[in-house]
Amino acid sequence: MNLKPLKGIHHVSAITANAKKNFHFYTKVLGLRLIKKTVNQDDTSVYHLFYADERGNPGTDLTFFEIPYAGRTYQGTNSISATSLRVKDNQALHYWKQRFEQLKVDHEAITNESGRMTISFRDPEGQRLILVSDEENHGVSGGKPWENSPVPQQHGVIGLGPVHLTVSRPERTIKVLTDIMGFHEKAGYQRDIDQKQVRVFETGEGGTGAEIHIVEDDQMSRERPGRGSVHHVAFRVEDADELNKWIEILNENHLPNSGFVERYYFKSLYFRESNGILFELATDGPGFEGDEDFEHLGQKLALPPYFEGQRTEIEARLEPLDTKG
């Protein structure tokens, strides 16, 4: 089978308990653009918010399911333990450190990890995030920050960076990444915060937009997710034909999976790796401008055509969320 390598990180989906506060932080503080206000297609009573670069280019989407009254996250192993966001260069990190101090965002010092400058921080719900500089990056290209962002374009977030997994049995996750998904291992590094060794795996063109970082921790209990936790990470495939090939690969390797799932803005396939972390494969297109033009992305409640007949009922269940400001 002529199968193309996965192209990198497609999106990361996390959990918030408060869509309004979430919208404020990710647009007004982090300067991302809300490019789609829609609903969780598996539970249309709650929002699904997509933040990204100027138009939601593949590899730039950080998304949130709103689960009102979600409890706190009890951090642990077998989890997506941090999500990275890429910025253009090292100078941008100094801008962000000053911005975090000014806006009282919980953050750490700028540090050098894996040959790149980074700064760790958290959103108000404890979401674990890392800004990573692309100054030394050679690999998957980033996106383009929105010109109307409150953050200057030269310092804006240009996409998703390495996704960090903490697992109790790393050999299980690594086997899926390398033997099935086509990742290969590159040089690792020692983490400053706790001196643990991190193993780095990349796919496609490699670089910050195509890496998974794995740390072993078999001492903690399994993470109990809630607000501020990550639901799943998705990887990029070219199109629906490629996605169908991946379904065959997973079936041949006896990996239970969702099969082909229509998400309207992209096509998807879901499965869990051997430590229980949810992976998704998602197509690069068709994208987010099929139901809204570029200038008005994210301003109205967007529903895929197969939910339009339920719009009245869906809107009645949702707390109004003003995203036009």
From TrEMBL:
CDD domains: PcpA_C_like. Signal peptide: none annotated. Pfam families: Glyoxalase. GO terms for molecular function: dioxygenase activity. Keywords: Dioxygenase, Oxidoreductase. Residues 8-134, 159-284 form the VOC domain. InterPro entries: Extradiol_RC_dioxygenase, Glyas_Bleomycin-R_OHBP_Dase, Glyas_Fos-R_dOase_dom, VOC_core. This is Ring-cleaving dioxygenase.
